[in-house]
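Reply to dn_fold:

You asked what the input looked like. This is it:
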Amino acid sequence: MLSGGQGLPKAGLLVLVLSLNMWNGDGAPEEEFWGALSRIGLCVGSEHCVFGEPRELLTQVWVQEGYLEHWQVPDSHPAHNEFLWSPWAYGETSKWQVMAFLLRVKQRAFRPFPFPSAEAAREEDSAA
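and this is what came back:
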């Protein structure tokens, strides 16, 4: 999927970015991405040990590799930019596949944790 040995972490981030775009109706304002990425610890202007600088990754690397399109919205005042799925991204995956993946992740995240054993519960009570 991604070139240059970027691997699974960047692929997961790309799925997040594509899903943000999908939820915003095919054209998401750039600010939506920066806000969402900052909530997971990827701040514009700060170098991340795995992803690098987020603005560079999205606006240069993934645009150049053809996963995203980045353009200025015509007649917007003040001027602002949007990210779009590129034709290449549609060739690699579909919105349905991204949505199905996100639903699987969500189901796993909310899977109930097993109840602690009676012994673990007693240990917790005695520690308190």
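The first strand starts at residue 27 and ends at 29.
Hope that clears it up.
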